[in-house]
Every structure is written in structure tokens, then in C-alpha cells.
Amino acid sequence: ENIKIGLVVKSLGNGFFEAANKGAQEAAKELGGVDIIYTGPTTTTAEGQIEVINALIAQKVDAIAISANDPDAVVPALKKAAQRGIKVISWDSGVNKDGRILHLNPSSNELIGNMCLKLAADHLPGGKGDFAILSATSTSTNQNTWIAEMKKQLPKYPGLNLVTTVYGDDLADKSYREAQGLLTSHPNVKVIVAPTTVGVLAASQAVKDAGKIGQVYVTGLGLPSEMAGAVHSGATKQFAIWNPIDLGYSATQLAYRLVKKETDGKPGSEINAGRMGKIKVGDNGEAAMADPFVYDAKNVDEFAKIF
Amino acid sequence: MSRILKYRELLLVAIIIVLIAAFSYRAPGYASPKSLANIFNDTSILIILALGQMAVIMTKSIDLSVAANLSFTGMAVAMLNAAYPGIPLPLLILTALAIGAILGAINGFMVWKIGIPAIVATLGTLTIYRGTAFVLSGGAWVNQTQMTPVFLNTPRMPVLGLPLLGWTAILVIAIVSVVFTRTIFGRSLYASGGNPTAALYAGVDVGRTKFFAFVLSGALAGLCGYLWVSRYAVAYVDIAAGFELDTVAACVIGGISTLGGIGSVGGAVLGALFLGVIKNALPVINISPFWQMAISGLVIIIAVLFNARQERRKGRLILRDAAKRRPSRIEAPVEGAAA
Amino acid sequence: MSIMTADKQSVRHIPDRLSTPIGRLLGSWETLLAAVAIAIFIANSLASPHFLDPWNLSDATYNFTEKAMIAFAMTLLIISGEIDLSVAAIIALASTAMGAAAQAGFQTPALVGIGLGVGLLCGAFNGLLVARIGLPSIVVTIGTMSLFRGIAQIVLGDQAYGGYPPSFAWFGQGYMSDFSWWPTLPGFEVVTFEMIAFVLFAVVFGILLHRTTFGRWIYAIGNNAFAAQFSGIPVQRTKFILFLMTGLMSGFAAVCLTSRLGSTRHTIAAGWELEAITMAVLGGVSILGGSGTILGVVLAAVVMGLVTFGLGLLNVPGIVMSIFIGLLLILVIALPIVFRRIRSRASA
Amino acid sequence: MSVVQAAAQDPTPLLEMRDISKSFPGVKALDHVDVALYPGTVTALIGENGAGKSTLVKILTGIYQPDSGEIVVDGKAVHFGNAEAAIRNGITAIHQETVLFDELSVAENIFLGHAPRNRWGLVNWSAMNARAAALLTSIDAPISPYTRLKDLSIAQRHLVAIARALSVEARVVIMDEPTAALSYKEVEDLFRIIDRLKRQGKAILFISHKFEEVYEIAERFVVFRDGRSIGAGLLSQTGQDEIVRMMVGRSVDHVFPKTEVAIGGTVLKVSGYSHPTEFDSISFELRRGEILGLYGLVGAGRSEFCQSLFGITRPSAGSLELEGRSIEIRSPSDAIAAGIVYVPEERARHGAVLQMPIFQNFSMATLAKTTRAGFLRQAEEFALARKYAERLDLRAAALSVPVGTLSGGNQQKVVIGKWLAARPKVIVLDEPTKGIDIGSKAAVHGFMSELAGEGLSVIMVSSELPEILGMSDRVMVMREGRMAGIWNREGLDAETLVRAATGNE
Ligand SMILES: Nc1ncnc2c1ncn2[C@@H]1O[C@H](COP(=O)(O)OP(=O)(O)OP(=O)(O)O)[C@@H](O)[C@H]1O
Ligand SMILES: Nc1ncnc2c1ncn2[C@@H]1O[C@H](COP(=O)(O)OP(=O)(O)OP(=O)(O)O)[C@@H](O)[C@H]1O
Ligand SMILES: [Mg+2]
Ligand SMILES: [Mg+2]
Fold first, then answer.
1. Strand arrangement, sheet containing D482-488
2. How far is CA C131 from the centre of its chain?
3. D505 falls in which pLDDT band (50, 70, 90)?
4. Which regions span the lipid bilayer (chain B) (predicted)?
5. Tens digit of each residue's pLDDT (9 = 90 or more) over D51-105
């Protein structure tokens, strides 16, 4: 009997998670005897994820690795899974401590926050000037954590001035309008930082349509395949992202080790993650994968072919 | 004064002007011609969709599948463009119109030939069309880099200060106006919704009229599929999610009766513009993002309230001399009970 | 009168009904739905070995119980010729209010009261605009849909409310076997509070709609509001009460859902309004008002729950599932119409 | 059965319907009927409610397709797949139901479906308005073609309907109960128009339940009973009694069987009822067992006034006393509770819930009586419905069929029955016999007498003089929202009432 791992994502049809699934499949093939059930709700809601989790529990999977739409709301369902002997971990977007054994951050939150600020500063002459944040929904855990980190580390960049934070809800049209609003109402904003692909894309488009390429830059976190156009148009000089394939790969590795009882996943333990080496579980049961990687016009096309 | 404002359209124009004035007080430059052209351009897609929705609502039906149709068609033409960059743009636009029209025709067929209530048929196809878009694309996005520059840039090409997207909306408004006021089909739309029995007796085929209303709505949604994808330079399954309700709201704010038979092209356009101004302005005048949803909800309710006051039945005058006395007595609580 | 009876030869007798009870049963919507439900049940048990597990089936009921509670009230509203698109937004607002109260240290009974109270208030607001002022409900509730959820968003921003008292969790996660009086028969231990609430509300709404004067008023209003008014039926008051009831049931659903999730964000229950309406329509409620039964909606809820759970077990993505629901909706509505047409053509 | 034959001097018919049959589920509406229409001739189609008259009209205008039989125009068999086809063949109709569009202009109402077009196939508005204006002038209707229909009075709408029927080059004009909603004055205008059409050589099919009208305007007749043609011929050779016998299968002697009833004390006292725009200073007393006729031209404000007694419209001034106690009526339920009920004029819109079963319509206003603690008891509902269905001689396949499947007259019986079940003190009947056949009319009149005998007070709005004169103990006339006087029955003649109603003192 194969080991069944449920890879639960925020919503299906998102390039980032499709890429993560690729990594998970790679890990499954490498480990052998592992079936990945790639699943998730249609829209990014907690209720939808709970239905998916219930279905996984009913199928008696061995492990669930989830990127949560809501850190609290899925906890009761995941607890039920744990009671029925299912190993639960979260990755990418975390679940509260009592709902999972461990959480795999794509990178450390400090590093991501810092990276976003550094990208902003790099786009500004002398690292001085106004910038604004265009986020996803106001409820998404990871974006909020990163924004909090950015605010915490802002004093390290004395020239940077955060003007406002707006939310595009990961909808192309809303993000576009919010970006447009930023351009009109804050003419001094020279950089828009969007820690989400839809946001960077829409903002680049808005900047381009407003004819402000070269005056206003957009940066943030996005997939190379989706961002290539923005980079070529000049709206974006650089952006960053970790490798989602590696993320899916690592999450699968961790879940497998837990099922095989090679580790208990307690803080302090070091877990074998195949080609990613050993991953150390820190306080709060959180583990981090690697630094985000910066892409620009020179390397974006090469990576766009991969993810 | 009251004679001028008798027309709902003028009232809406006034409200929109007041809104723009108020907004430009908070954000100077908001009322500049460039900014206004920008707002119109931004609202173009909603206007086009609202006009299709209006044709359907006019016949006492509703099309909840417009946004799903847009998503499917947008995905389809984006994938076509990505896979065969050689296909000329006009052909792609025709394809979008055709796919949209076919999806609309499916709705229309169910309403006409099977007799399923429109709201049910389109509630069903709403999920089916979007689901099919997912199946078609396997959930993958079509990104900017995969689409050709012509495909992406044509609607943005400015002509006399307004991008082609805005001109497209103007063209659609013109065509739909002629269809509504000057063609047999247009008059049949009013008749079928206003009094279906009477329409039947007058030789109007109510079912067929509904069918073509759905085809029109579908074709316009298909066109918007292309426009949307090129505007935001990305195609994915969830685009325009929930937009169907915006189109209905635009129609109703514009005075199109959900009971059918009442409304004008101007009303639908203004209703859409009203929503467009609100949506565009809130980010610009720096309203906290958390307040935007509540404000737009409130504004919709207020607009509907205003509309309803305009539409209050005047009451027939049986007493000959009542007309003279009327102004002083108009406050009397007489209309109330006869709802 | 003597004049008339003189030349009246015989009183024509009019039978009460044309068809026999069995004929009516066979021709009814509910029979069709029950058949569909049984077919899906069998198909599910064949397709997945995990389906016929009492605990799994118990989990599966969460797919529809809360939505069905709203659908019951919505059914009455739709039959009366109105609609409420703001139900999901009411859940968000009620849940937010409960969250705020929980933060302030209120205990479970107070939280439930607040949830129901906010639901009732929202319903009253809709009712006021529709029944008193006379605005079209479809537009009003498109507006209040944004307004109610918007207020929740203003209150919550990017935050979440958690920290509900432990006893509050029972509504959405509790089993009846937590009570000592609950029979310990095999199978009974999987019965949840929500299942009981679902059955109870089905019965209450069924009786209200089909066996009371108030229910008859609803049908009369939905078919011809003028004639209802001319018959002395308080049309506006009835509609107002229906909006109140829909608000209240949304508040109740908010209690269950919040308790099940243990946290509140402003996106809670997004998109449920269309699911509740789909449930009602699949249950044979005429969207144009005037006809429909609660039994039909109960069956429709079960059918939708079974379909989503069965397909979930096969790991069919949610969006593909929705294709099935859409097709089911259209087919179930279309088939009787098509059959009727074929039959009348055959008899002609 | 005596079928009158007038074969000898028959011209050739313009249009013939031969052996037409049409069934609806459970009803054979038409059973092998034959009808012939002749140029320059008005043929009256006579029959009880539900005899199949309107069904025939709908077949002739392409709205229904017959199950069997053929339609022959000028000796050629034709087939009308839809309403347009009938119009193309020169057949036009004023239907029994309202077939106009509230939101459209008068001109559009007239030309919908056959609007003049310009050379690009677009609607030619100026030609349309001009032609509409010409048409309206030709029938002496002072109505602007630009007005929206909803701003017209009932009588004006009727003129628009006539203009619409005349807007096509028609050779056959069908009028299905055109006079049911009209008062004396408009009927005269209509008859002038019919005369002109006759002179133009058109064949006219005229449907009415009023014999005076039939004898005045028509030359030929066809009688239907239960969907079969029973007889046809020349009216000049056939007496009314004979036609009634053909129609009903028996003789109906007393058309207005008003029995003398002892009149009691005052039940209802209306003082100074006023409304800002609809009526002014209406005052009268209604006594026990009395039938008060309320006469006036269409649009005189009678309905609005009656609706204010029932709580639909709110008066702005005035007071009401019921049995000596002052009452205020704010809603229909107040009125019902006080014992005042109102049978509306527009039964399909205000009276019956067409989609609901007959028995539920009967019990609708009296649910309290058939329920226990708010719970319905179906057996009692059926019992109540059966009782009133039999008393009113209702024709229906079953008590559980929707009211909408009944003929117009039978729908009216259900609406009246609903209120009789409420056992009121005062019943206001707004045009109670509008569109009702003479058998049922006699039944309704008999019933009114019977109720008056039981001590009920009746206000009967009617635009039909014979009915007013035959049934009322007293008659009140309204003109333009004001009382034009009250007369006792003794020595009252039609001329007085008409003069009061029109204001030609
Ligand atoms: N659409 C329909 N469906 C079912 N039955 C119908 C329908 N239309 C008419 N009928 C039935 O056919 C019969 C003839 O109806 P029709 O309307 O032709 O009567 P009518 O002679 O015009 O009566 P009235 O004088 O009351 O107008 C009636 O029994 C009626 O109930
Ligand atoms: N222009 C109109 N628009 C809408 N409804 C009208 C119009 N004219 C008349 N009606 C309706 O017709 C009915 C009769 O009108 P009204 O009360 O003015 O006259 P009346 O004296 O009762 O005439 P009738 O002889 O028809 O009974 C009313 O119920 C009213 O609703
Ligand atoms: Mg008739
Ligand atoms: Mg009247």
C-alpha cells in the first residue's frame, strides 16, 4: 500500500501552486511508493479547504501538507485529522501551532521582509523616497506577516518612506485599480512593492498604461514566467521569489519522514529533505527553506521556462 | 426643475457630476479630461457587459453567466493567441464574439426551447462555463509573455486621447442604441418583457426574442473576454469573478426594471458609469481599503432609493381641479397603501 | 333564490381532484429528487470504499447543513417572490459581532444571542428597504451584500477574531453523544448538533409553509401580490417577517459556522448566497415565486452534499465539481419539462 | 334542437372555419365547430362562459393551432402558425385580455409587430407617429401618439386597442367582448366605428354577453354551447328567448330577479370621503338589506372610492360609521375584520390568484375559518369551496385545478365566492357581472338578492344601465370624482342617470 500525502493548496489554478505540485511529484517519484493528492478549493476560502480536508480524512490519507487560507479556521478540521492518525504539516502559508506538527516557511519571514525593502531601495535613487505596498487579500497570512516584517525592519532603511498599504484581493482588475489609485493619489510614490504575483503584474500593467515607466517602478514577489513581460517592458527592474518547486519538494519530503516516523518533527529536530539537504525545525515548530532569489532582465527568461 | 429631473437619466448624470466634483475636491486633478477619459476607459468593459445584460433583463430574464462567459472566452482566445501567434487579431476578436455568442445561445436555447427560467439556466451555466475554463486551461495561467504584443496593445492604442478600448465601448453603445430604438428586434425586446401575452398576440415571438437577447449578451461578454485579458495582460480562471452582479446592479441603478420592459440604453450606460466612478474614485481619494466595500454597498442602496422616489406613481387625476391644488397636497399620505 | 332553483335541473358535481394520490406522488418533483439522491448514494458507495463509513458520512453532512438552514428560510422568501443575496454577508457580520464580543469576554449564551440578534437586525434592514419602502429585493440585497460584509471588513481589517470560549465550539463541532441522555445505540454516536438542527428546522419550516395560514399567505403573495392584498393578506408585513426569518437563520448559520471554524475573518462564507439559492432551486422552488416545497429543498441539500462529498473522495477539484452541480441543476429542472412535453404530445 | 337556417339569400362567406376542434388538458374547448363570416356583416358569437368563444378567436388569430379542422379564406385553406401570419392574411382582433404595453407610446402600441420601416430596415418613427395620429383621428380619439400608454385612462386605452386592430389592412375584424369594460357613452362610439367598418365591407365577429348590444349591431349569430356550435342564422328571424335556449339548453326567465326585501336601519355611514386627486366629498348612508347601485362613466372614480372603503387607498378626509360606531380602515384586513369586503373589477390582476387551485382561492380571505390555531385543515377548505362552487354553478374540471384554466366568467365566480364565504355585513361589488354570461349573471343577481334578503348590504358598481335599474334599491351617480346625486328606485329612468353621469343637465 502506497503512502498517500494530501497536498492542499489555497486554490487550484494558481501558477505558484502548480509549480509546487511539480516539486511534490518529483519528491514522490524519488521516494517511491508515495501518491500525491494535489487538491484545494475553487476560491481561496477556509470553508472550501475544510471540505477538502474532510474528504482527505475520509480517504484515510497518511499525511496532509497544507498552505492555509486562514491560520485558525482550518485548525479544528486538522485536529480531527491528527486524531485519526494523520500527520499534518503546513507550508507556504501557515497554520496555527496546535493545528500542525510543523510549518515550512519558504524562506524566513525576516529575510523576505528585508528582501522586499531592499528591492524597493534598489529602485530608488540613493535609496531615498516614497513607496507603497499592494498586497493580496487583507486576510492572507503570509502577506500580512511579510508586511509586518517590512514595517519592523523599515528603520534599517532610513531613506524609505512607506506611504500606504492597499489590497488588490489577488484579483487582476481590483489590483489594477488600486495601483491606478496609488499613482493618482500619491504622485510621490516611486516604487510599488507587491508581495504577490497578481499584484506585481497588475501594478506593472497600470504603470505601463499610465505611461510612467521609468518614473515609477514595481517590484515584489512573483513567478518568473508571469513576471517576464513586466521586466521586459521596464516597469519592473528586479523581483524576487523562492523556488516553489523546491517548496513543494521539501514539504513532501518532510511529510514522508513524519509518516515513516523517521522524526517527530519537534522543535530542534533536523529532518532529511532529499536534495534540499537537512531542514532544521526552529522555535514554534517553524522551519525555513532558503533565501529568496532575485531575478532581473538577465536571468528571467531562463527561469520563466521552468516556473 | 421637477420637469427636468423627471428623467431618471438626468438625475443620474447629476449624481455622477456631483460625485466627480466631490472627489476632485479631495483629489485635485480627478476631474481633468485625461482622468475622466481614464475613468470611462476603465469602465468600458462594465458598460459593454451591462448593455448585454440590459437586453436580457428587458425580456424579464437575467443572465448570471456573463462573467463566466467572459472568463471562458478570455481564456480561449488567450490560449489561441499563445498557441498560434500567427492568427490575425481581427480573426481572434471574431472568434471571441462567436464563442461568446455560442455560450449565450446555449443559455437562450434552454430558456426558449426547454422553458427553463433564465435565472436557473444561467445559474447553472455560470458554474459550468467557469468550470470548463478550468478544464480547458488545466488551471494554468496565460501570461503576458505568451501573448503577442498586437493582442495586448491594440485596445490601449490612444485615438484622440481615448484608448481604443473606450472607443469600442462607444461603438457598442451606438450599435446597441440603434438596435434598441430602430429595429424590430429592439422593439420586440420591450414588448416581450413589458407584456408577454400582448407580445404574443402582436405576433412577437417572445421565446425567440429572449434567445437573441441571450445571444447578444453572450457575444458582448465574449468581446469583453478578449478586452479583459488584453487589458490586464493575464488570463486565468477566476477573472471577473462576481462581475455578473455588478452588471445587474449597473442596469438597475440605470433604471432598467428587473420585471422587464422598462429601461433605456442611456440608463444602463450611466448606471455602469456610476459604479465605475465609485470603484475608481475610492482608491484615488485615499479611502481606507477596508472601508471601500461598505461604502460602495451603501452608495448602491442610496442610488436605488433615489431611483425609486423618482418612479413613484403620479396617480391619475380624476378630479379636474385637483391638478391645480396638487402641489400643496402632495405631501398627504395617500399613495402609501396601494403598493 | 327560489327563482333560480326552479329552473336549475341538477347541480353539477365538481370532483376535488383530478389525479389519485399515487399519481400525484409519482409525478412529483420530490420523487424525482429522492430517486436522484438514491442513485448518487449508490454510485458513491460503488466509486469509493470510504464512502459507507458512518464517521465519514457524519463529516459529509457539514457540506450542506449550514447552507441548508439558510436555504429553508430563503425558500420561503423566494416563494413569496423576493430574494436575499445578502445572506452570506449577514453571516460575516454576525460572526464578526460574535468575535468582538468573545474578545470582550462574553460567554457562549451571550455570543449565540449576539449572533442571532445581528442576523435579525440585518434581516430587518433588508425587510425595511424591500417591504416598507418597496425597493426591488434583488438590487437592495446586492447593495446590503456589500454593506454588511463591508462593515465586517471595517471592523476586522486584516485581523481575525479567535479565542472563542471552549464551550462555544459545540455548535459546529459537537456530537449529540456529548449528552448523557442521548441513546447510545450503534450509529447514534455520529449524530452532530448541526444534523439535529437541520432536521428540526426542516420540520419547522415544512409545517410553517405547508400547514399554516402564514404559509398559504406566502404562496398567495408569490403568485399574485395584488390579489393577496385585496384578500386582506398583510403583504408587506409578511414579506418583512420573511426577511427577518432569513436574517435570523443566517445568524444561526453564523453561530454554527463560527463555532466550527473557531475564528472569524471578513471573508467567511464567501459565495454562500448562490449555493443557498441553488439548493432552493434544485429543490423545485420556482425562482419566479409561487411554488416549491421544503421537502424538495431537504432532498436537494442532501443531493448536493452527496455529490460534493462523493466527488471530493475521488479528489475531483472543486471547480470541476461545480460543473456537475450546474449540470445537475439544469438537468433536474429540464427533465420534467421535457417529459411533460413529450407526454402531452403523445396524448394529443 | 332548432337550428335556424338562413340559406337562401346567403352571400359567399369571406372566411369559414370548418370542423375546428381544440382540446386542453381535461377540457375539450372546441368540438367540431363551424363558423362563417360574411363581408359587410357583423356576426355575433354567443355562448356561456367557457363555451369556447375566446379559444376560437385565438385560433383565428394564430395564437393557438387547432387540433383538427381548417380555416378557409376566399375559398383557399390557410394555416396561421403565429399571430403575424393571421395579420398578414388580413385578420385582426381586439382580444378579451389586455394586450397592450404600458411602457410604450401609443404609436408603438398601435404598430408593434408591423411598424413602418425605412429603406435600411430600421423603424421609421416619424412615419409611425404620423400614421398613428391619422388613425386616432379617424376614430375620433383625441389621443397624442407620443403619450405613454400608462398615462391613459381605461377608455382611452380601449380606443388605442381599436386603433391597433384597424392599423393593419384587415378584412376580418374580431372583437372579443369589447364592451365589457365600457360604459354607455363609449359603447355608442364603438358602434359608430363598427358601422363604418361594415360599410367598408369588412367581416366582423362580435362577441358579447349583452343581448341588447347584439341585437343592435349584429345581423347574424352563431351560438356555442360547451364547445359545440349549436345554431347559426339571422338575428332578424330569431328571438332572444330562442337564442338563450340554444345557449343554455333551458330558458332563463328572470334576468334581474330582484326580490323585494325589507330594508332595515343604517349599517354604513360615509361622510365627506375625499381624496386629493381621485374623489371628493362623498357622503351617503347604506341600510341593511339594501342594494345601492353606483353608476358613472368609466373613470368616474367609482373604483377608487370603493377601494378606499376597503383600505386599499387611504382617504385624506372623511369618516366612516359602521352600525353606529365610528371606524377607521387602514388596510384590507381592517375592512374584512369590520365586515366590509370588496370584489375588485380586474379579476385576473386583483381578484384571483390564477396559479393557485380553485379551493385555495375560495378559502383565501377566510382562512381563519378553515384553520385551527393557524393550522390549515384541507378537508374544510374543500367543503367550503364545494359549497360555493355549487351555489354559483361553477364550471371546472376539479376543485384542485388552477383558477387560471377557467374561462373568464368562471374566474369571476370564484372571486365572488371567495367573498361570500367571508359572510360580510357590507359587500362592494365592482362591476360584478363584467364579462359574465347571462345564465351566470342571473345566478349572481339571484345571489345578490338572496344576500340582501339575509340582511347584507350591497354596493354594486356597474356601468350597465339595465343592471343598475333592475337591481338597485337606490342609485348613486358619480361624475369626475364627485357625487352627482342619489335617487330612489321608484320612478327612476335611464335618462336621468345618463344625464347625471355625463353632466348634460
Ligand atoms: N390555456 C388554456 N388551458 C387550459 N384550458 C383552457 C385554456 N384556455 C381555455 N381553456 C378552457 O377552454 C374552455 C373555453 O374557454 P374560452 O376562454 O374559449 O371561453 P369563452 O367562451 O371565451 O368564455 P368567456 O365568455 O368567459 O370569455 C374553458 O373551459 C376554459 O377553461
Ligand atoms: N390610466 C389608468 N392607469 C391605470 N389604471 C387605470 C387607469 N384608468 C383606470 N384604471 C384602473 O381602472 C379602474 C377603474 O378606474 P376608476 O376608479 O378611475 O373609474 P371607475 O369609475 O371605477 O370606472 P369603471 O367604470 O371602470 O369602474 C381602477 O381600478 C384603476 O386602477
Ligand atoms: Mg372569452
Ligand atoms: Mg372601476
1. D340-343, D426-430, D457-461, D291-295, D474-479, D482-488
2. 21
3. low
4. 36-57, 64-84, 90-112, 119-142, 162-180, 211-229, 260-278, 290-308
5. 889 999 999 999 899 999 999 998 889 988 888 888 888 899 888 776 788 888 9
User: What pLDDT band is residue B213 in, cutting at 50, 70 and 90?
Assistant: very high
DSSP letter for each residue of B88-104: -HHHHHHHHHHHHHHHH
Half-sphere exposure of D262 (CA within 13 A, CB side): 3
Our CA angle for B290, B292, B295, nearest 5°, is 125
- What architecture (CATH level 2) is domain D2-248? 3-Layer(aba) Sandwich (3.40)
Fold agreement between D2-248 and D253-339+424-505 = yes
Using DSSP, state whether A307 is helix, strand or coil.
coil
* SS3 sequence of D378-396: HHHHHHHHHHHHHHCCCCC
Atom of ligand 1 lying closest to residue D58 CA = 18
Q: Which residue, among C171, C169, C175, C170, has the nearest Cα to C191 in the 3D structure?
A: C175
Query: Best mutation site among C103, C154, C263 for testing chain A: the one with the most A CBs within 10 Å?
Result: C263
Main-chain phi, psi angles of B158, to 5 degrees: -80, 135
- Report how far residue B155's alpha carbon sits from residue B178's, in angstroms, rounded to the nearest whole number: 24
Q: From residue C163, give the alpha-carbon distance in Å to each of C112, C154, C194, C262.
A: 15, 20, 21, 8
Using alpha carbons only, give the angle A13, A16, A19 rounded to the nearest 5 degrees: 95
**Which CATH architecture best describes the domain B2-19+39-311?**
Orthogonal Bundle (1.10)
Output the pTM of the full model.
0.85
- On chain A, the residues whose CB falls within 8 A of the CB of B29 are 184
Q: Please report the domains of chain C, with CATH numbers, ordered by start residue.
A: 64-335 (1.10.3470)
> Is residue B3 over pLDDT 50?
no
Domains of chain D, by residue range, sit at 2-248, 253-339+424-505, 349-423
Asked whether the CA dihedral B304, B307, B308, B309 is positive or negative, the reply is positive
Q: Which triple of cell numbers denotes residue A122?
A: 534598489
Q: What is the SS3 string spanning A81-146? A: HHHCCCEEEEECCCCCHHHCCEEEECCCHHHHHHHHHHHHHHHCHHHCEEEEEEECCCCCHHHHHH
Distance CA A189, CA A183 (A): 7
Architecture of domain D253-339+424-505: 3-Layer(aba) Sandwich (3.40)
Say which ligand is closest to the CA of D48.
1
Compute CA B197 distance to the chain's CA centroid, rounded to the nearest angstrom: 27
- Chains in contact with A, where contact requires at least 3 CB pairs less than 8 Å apart: B, C
* Residue-level pLDDT at C49: 86
What residues of A are in contact with residue C88 (Cβ under 8 Å)? none
Cα–Cα distances in angstroms (integers) from residue A119 to residues A132, A168, A192, A293, in the given order: 13, 20, 10, 11
Q: What are the helix and strand counts (H, E) for chain B?
A: 14, 2
| Ligand minimally distant from the alpha carbon of residue D208 | 1
Q: What percent of chain C has pLDDT over 70?
A: 94
| Mean pLDDT over each residue of chain D, to the nearest integer | 86
**Residue C2 banded pLDDT, cuts 50, 70, 90:** very low
pLDDT tens across D276-307, in order?
888 889 999 999 999 999 998 877 889 999 99
Burial degree of A37 (CB within 10 A; 0-12, 13-18, 19+): middle
What is the DSSP track for D269-300?
Answer: EEEEEE-SSS-B-EEEEEETT-EEEEE--TTS
**Closest protein CA for atom 28 of ligand 2:** D303
C62 to A40: CB separation less than 8 angstroms, yes or no: no
The number of angstroms, rounded, from the C-alpha of D80 to the middle of its chain's C-alpha atoms is 28
pLDDT recorded at residue B215? 98
Say yes or no for a CB contact (<8 Å) between B128 and C326.
yes
- DSSP-derived letter for residue D357 is B
Q: What burial class does residue A125 get, using C-beta atoms within 10 Å of its C-beta: 0-12 exposed, 13-18 middle, 19+ buried?
A: exposed
